[in-house]
Amino acid sequence: MTERAEAIAAKIERFVRETVIPYERDPRLTAHGPTEELVQEMRAKARAAGLMTPHIVADGSHLSQRETAIVLKKSGLSPLGPVAVNTMAPDEGNMYLIGKIGTAEHKRRFLDKLVAGEARSAFFMTEPAEEGGAGSDPSMMKTTCRLDGDHWVINGRKAFITGAQGAKVGIIMAKSEDGACMFLVDLPDPAIRIDRVLDTIDSSMPGGHSVLTIDNLRVPADQMMGAAGEGFKYAQVRLSPARLSHCMRWLGSAMRAQEIASDYACRREAFGKKLVDHEGVGFMLAENMIDLKQAELMIDWCADVLDGGSLGTVESSMAKVAVSEALYRVADRCIQVMGGTGVSGDTVVEQIFREIRAFRIYDGPTEVHKWSLAKKIKRDHAKANPQ
Fold it and tell me: Residue ranges of the Acyl-CoA dehydrogenase/oxidase C-terminal domain (predicted)?
């Protein structure tokens, strides 16, 4: 690990513990995430501390994935930490994608305000399942785009669009005759109608998760990212590191849950001794230590692969499965250790549990990633054993 990353991570941890954690009981936290007022208040403090968007350095370059891992882990010590310092999904992944694929004009117009923490963004890919649209299988995409003069016209429906409510920048995926396309758009736009914001188990992401309709949205041709038909390839540029970033952030949250549960077990007495001295409790905390370390090692390994220049689709799938399942076990055990207090709102542990439960689905459910890995096993076997 580099000295610069360790220095940034130390500052982030101090800021989250001293400044952000007190906001965890703020009345501006809603079922659909923190309000915009709260987001900007926390970001103003992060900006004053020199910690806004810490994974992107002053010259515009990005920390390595290995460096990003330690920084995002510390930001995740509170569910509000990534929001405050601008390392939260979907913005973190969208910034990465625009930085990789966007033109100089795209970066000036859309990326700069995201990096500054002045605006939020949304990634429009998933569609309503009841309408047969794209979910884990993006090839089912029904949203269309057609060229009309020097504009593209987009029509369709989207669902589970994180942060669409209140976003200023959108990345929309749609299908043309050439295949999937990707567009940058200013938000809000009257042609994009939010039908409802879903009530979901998680509540950490500003704006919640929306179902919306795109009705004859006209987008200038120069706002297409890359080339027509290459949208799925660009999506992988975003999704591989984005899956890993989720792992980094939620590792920090699971570590915080372990801290709280361990403190509870070392203070609470039952049947004549501290809870931690009962093997049934102490062993759960020990198992958490093991899961947390294995998750950290998996993240570091996958980060090394991405830093080595590989797209890392296989590796990010393995990390997503291993880490999300491990952290869910950690959060579940923390609640069990704390009993009734664990399921109450007296600590942040119950929220961390809810957030990590959702993480097992977001950016690809565990089963989809396993299916993808099984297909690779079959392909590799066929190569090694030609008929």
Answer: 229-376
Strand pairing class (179-186; 169-176): antiparallel
Q: Domain 232-384 in CATH: superfamily? A: Butyryl-CoA Dehydrogenase, subunit A, domain 3 (1.20.140.10)
User: What is the CB neighbour count within 10 angstroms for residue 294?
Assistant: 13
279-307 vs 231-267: helix axis angle to the nearest 10? 150
Asked if 195 and 21 count as a contact pair (C-beta separation under 8 A), the reply is no
- What architecture is the 121-228 domain classified under in CATH? Beta Barrel (2.40)
Three-state secondary structure call for residue 30: strand
pTM of the predicted model as reported, rounded to 2 decimal places: 0.93
Per-position pLDDT tens, the chain of length 387: 799 999 999 999 999 999 999 999 999 999 999 999 999 999 999 999 999 999 998 877 889 999 999 999 999 999 999 999 999 999 999 999 999 899 999 999 999 999 999 999 999 999 999 999 888 888 899 999 999 999 999 999 999 999 999 999 999 999 999 999 999 999 999 999 999 999 999 999 999 999 999 999 999 999 999 999 999 999 888 887 888 899 999 999 999 999 999 999 999 999 999 999 999 999 999 999 999 999 999 999 999 998 887 767 888 899 999 999 999 999 999 999 999 999 999 999 999 999 999 999 988 899 999 999 999 999 999 999 987
CATH class, domain 3-88, is mainly alpha
